[in-house]
Give the backbone structure.
Amino acid sequence: MAKIIGGITTSHIPAIGNAMADKKENDPYWKRFFDGYEPVKAWLDEVKPDVAIIVYNDHGLNFFLNTVPTFALGCADEYHNDDEGWGIPTTASFKGDAQFSWHLAESLINQNFDLTTCQEMKVDHGCVVPMSLMWRHLPEWPCKLIPLAVNTVQHPLPSAQRCYDLGKALRKAIESYPEDTKVVIFGTGGLSHQLQGERAGIIDVEFDMECMDYIVNDPDKMTAFSNTEIMEKAGTEGIEVIMWMVMRGALAPNVNVLHKHYHAPISNTGAGVLLLTDGKD
Ligand code: DHB
Ligand code: FE
């Protein structure tokens, strides 16, 4: 049977893609940020997942404002990356797992998550920057990817509670897949940032810390926040943290923290990293 071996959260800031392309990992501005990923890279190299489910948001590449699904699941055997305007070099196309995706879609829809299924889906920095971060030391990404897009752009957005519940349903969907498949789930985006308007550039380190703590130890405190409360504290794009709740819902009620790191600012963002596994009940 398929099994969830862990969950990872990470920002997906486009500037990280450019820093990697320009080999700036050891520059003073970047070093502490990139160092924060080394334990996660080492863990992935050790556990060797077969499939990574990437919870991310599309930033206007595949879904423009005229058509934005709340939840959209990639159901393809191959995905293509493109850059919607940040100047990041595009990555090679990468492998999906359509058979597994269709199983997930069927299970999730049977659990009343009526998501959009995409047999073609271009993915942007939200999906590929985290993957490049994890695996740029390898000639190609070592596992299949399944992108799961969450609308964090066009209001009304799903709540943290809805994302958490989707994660719980995703766990059931994964665990009912009969193939022996090791699955890791990535929640990408966040933490606090706002890219436009009067409050552009705000970062709330204290709130970011609180979110990381709640996500690990008390997810119900995170789901108690309304989206308005999250955006008041974390900025309009800080709402991306709801995608971390999909990852959290897919893990056990108690989790082990194998790694935790936070660095601010990177570009306009408070950048957080978590590596979690199921803990004891
Ligand atoms: C930045 C962060 C994001 O999540 C994003 O999608 C685009 C830009 C930033 O910090 O610059
Ligand atoms: Fe983003």
About this structure: The first helix runs from residue 14 to 21. Residues 12-15, 59, 189, 193, 195, 237, 240, 267-269 surround 3,4-dihydroxybenzoic acid (ligand 1) (CB under 6 Å). DSSP finds ten helices and eleven strands in the chain. The CA atoms of residues 80 and 93 lie 5 Å apart.
